[in-house]
Amino acid sequence: MTDLAATLLAEIDAAREELVGFFQEFTRIATPNPPGETREAAAFLGAFLARHGIDHQVIAPVPEWPNIVADRSFERSGRHLVLNGHIDVFPAGDPSRWRHGSPWSGSIEDGRLYGRGTADMKCGTAASFIAFALLSRHANRLSGRLTLTAVSDEETGGRWGTGYLFQHHPELVCGDCCLNGEPSSAYTVRYGEKAPLWLVFTVKARGAHGAYVHLSDSATKIAADLIERLEAVTTLKPDMPAAVARNLADPVVRHALETGLGTGAADTVAQVTLNIGMVEGGLKTNMIPSECRVEADIRLPVGVPKARVWAMVREILADFPNVSVEEQSLPEETGANWCDPDGEMLRIIQDTAERIAGIRPAPVITLAATDARFWRNANIPAYIYGCAFDLVGTYDESVAIEEFLNVVRVHTLSAAAYLGRV
Amino acid sequence: MDELSRDVLTRLDADRDRALAMLRAILQAPSPNPPGDTRAVAAIITQALTAAGIEAKIFAPHPDMPNIVARFDGARPGRHLVLNGHMDVFPVARHEWGHDPWGGEIADGRIYGRGACDMKGGLASLLLAFLHLHAIRDRLAGRITFTAVSDEETFGPWGARWMFEHQRALMLGDCLLSGEPSSPQCVRFGEKAPYWIAITVRTRGGHGAYTHASASATKIGARIAKALEAVKDIPVRAPDNLVAMFRDPAIARQIDEGCGAGHASVIPEVTLNIGRITGGLKVNVLPSECRVEADVRLPIGLTKDELRPHVAAILADFPDATWEEISPPEDAPSWSDPDGEMMGILRRTVQALGRPAPVPVVTLGGTDTRLWRYAGVPAYIYGLSPESMAAADENILIEDFFHVLRTHTLAAARYLNGPRGAA
Questions:
Q1: Closest in A220, A268, A280 to B274, CB measured
Q2: Most buried of A346, B102, B126, B199, CB within 10 angstroms?
């Protein structure tokens, strides 16, 4: 262990109560999205930076959804690392179902901190702030540049958050690497994600009395046929880069995926999947439906670009003259995103995590989307390491205090290692 | 044509203006169901009966949905004919109409309005027939009962069903004649029965990207919708005379002319409509629930008890699904003798009026006539063209209305006077 690493670990231990308090207070400020109002939380995060003598700017294209950026160049030139997290969280659901009477209690019970967004991803965002503050104290021992970005509008697509920063402030975010604390569990570090292709199909027919089946096609029956035919997209074989194919075949990686994401996940990662998220057709039992809506959620693995799926969907739709389709996902995303599964920062995170938590995280591609995709789509490596994700979105969402501190340690030391080795 | 028939036709000819005025007045009294308020129509009918000196008994278990019964006896004992029509009509999507749906507007030999064919035209015809026959009751045998009910369009509980439960004796007779739309080319002697089931699929559900973690309720729902198509192949054992009739190309042609292309082919078939499929909350959530509503129609020759095990066997392949029947349990395909006496009277009467003899046909949907058939009373429907039924700008040919009125009046008189009158 380097001197700097030992110093940082000692500082984290010494500040333990303050750090847990910061995470706890952050949790207590409600930031559900929708509606996504994060101004109070942003002010709280800004005050944390100010307390540590750090300047920041607020970039708020939508006043209710501010983004916070702190940027620090070190004296010696070197690489540019960007830390990224989000402030907004999932909606809280029914408050009465939370064990402490509120989704925003921040209550600590049996060593766990409870609340909506603790895992996704106030734990990781807090870790980014803490890492930035700690490294700022040791500027003379680092080189290059460190940028902290905490955004709003992640849960609903990122147009006014990270997406906005890439469009309007590329100098801040287009660094050499991105580190993100989205939940990953201590068993994995995430280097890529499948891409969503969301399609809304509308079936139209004339409609008629339900007994007069000779008078009209049935929108629901056509929809049932369409759903069956769409299953064909799951047979598309990915054409993967060698490094990703190797990674996905690695028994350690497969085991990590099956353990973390459930039995079958190792195959799911490498396949096109089809979820029929919604079907809505017909008004009454005894009427032949004139309309049916089908919402399909297709997930593309590395090696199956969106264009290939579109081509197949169009071929299928040639047999369905009464069906129209439109894309609900972002058309500019052309497929899965990934970076080097053998990259330098990935090794740093693995080594650091193994030393801190005793578990060497396996590099994996994940199924759900995060803002890390903006970096990967810009050809900038982006890695995710954070707390466990299995309680995300549940009424028991919580993070173990020790787990939170480990995420803080891994982020701080990994960032230091990345910026310290020149 | 016998003397009585000729006299009846003379009376009807002399009375055309009043008949058309009565039809218009009934069309101008809105009675859409839902909500099913028929009081305005009932008031016109009651007034017409009272003016003729006939007592109108009103039964209104629901205050907005009265049912009317009136009757008289002929000069000598004989058989009892019941006439039935309903006063409620389909609702109106006003913006789709070019004509005022409650205007009774006349243009190009047609009269427009919601209910013109289903079934205010038939109802006005039965009422007028009843009044004319009352005027010549000293030349008739037997008894004739006129019934005008509410709450038919939704098969609600306050109309004919209530009357059968609470005033059964008043509703029954030896034969029923209904004026529901049949097309003047057809007589409806039976109807298919609805068999509705609701299937609920429940799975664990989850995140839309984690397709390995749970079965999908919507995909299973779609598979069930397709698997149910097998009900169409269930063998149907219809009586031989009906089978022969359905296979007769001449009859099929006339049915399709009157009731719309394809009608004849659907009569003997088990049909399946998937009325609704609803499942899922959001595109990216793997659905944990999906509901499928299937609308099966049983032809004559297949009972629910015969169908049910087939449905159960199909659905047994889907352990995540539960199902229940949601159609009225008492409904069953119903039919009267297609060679019955009233059928013959109607055929000969129409022919005598210079039109082709109507062919026997089965109704695909449901009408109140089934209640008489369940009670063992032969029931036949003769009425206007169903072409614009339930559609915007519903209308009928005014000459068809007069034709149906002549047919109803003559057929009723011939039935009451027995084989002698029908000769």
A1: A220
A2: B126
